[in-house]
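User: If only I could read backbone structure tokens as easily as an amino acid sequence. Those tokens are not coordinates but codes from a learned vocabulary of shapes. Could you go through the record with me and say what the backbone is doing? Here is the record:
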Amino acid sequence: MLDVQDIDLHYGAAQALRSVSLSVRPGEVTAVLGRNGVGKTTLLRAIVGRQRISSGSIWWEGHRIDALRPADRARAGIASVPQGREIFPLLTVQENLQTGFAALPRTQRDVPDEVFELFPVLREMLSRRGGDLSGGQQQQLAIGRALVTRPRCLVLDEPTEGIQPSIIKDIGRAIGYLRDRGDMAIVLVEQYFEFARDLCDHFHVLERGQIVNSGTRAEMVEEDVRGLLTV
């Protein structure tokens, strides 16, 4: 469904990604792991169109998309949950969810019940401002907003960062449910190794902008991967 083929990406003279390739299929979670500053977020920004690649190509459902704007990729079915959540603090929870309508035709502009089934707290807080929510609740809101767009590919950048353990479990269950539904491809950037290991079907470890270790979860040698994640 999503194919990243041999991409390079530069910030000025600095090269952030080097010949990175990966594929993500419906019903699978692909985890991207690595230390801080190795290119994980840059890779996700390239996938969703927030950073232009220097070479290589990105394909979505058989169509090349690396020249498309982020809004066009969202309309095509790719949704992003960015690092830091990026919710609108002065808008209510309901208004934050409704910002996902921009990627939808008018006939689909409603919040799916699935959002509230996965994150019941959002229904209880519809009238509360986003900035008044806890960090974990804001993360649930950011994922819910992405799900409003009815994505076929969900891209999550460190969804456990700064989140309390109970909500980490809720987010893990939600990702597992979406994977098991079978019609969504999921890309997960994570530094919390156990969280990524337990959810992923495939993994890729980045080091200095390159993939240095990859495979299926069954092929993962935990000691090798942990060694690449420690400072």
About this structure: The first strand starts at residue 2 and ends at 11. Residues 2-229 form a domain with the Rossmann fold fold (CATH 3.40.50.300). The chain has nine helices and ten strands. The two ends are 34 Å apart (CA to CA).
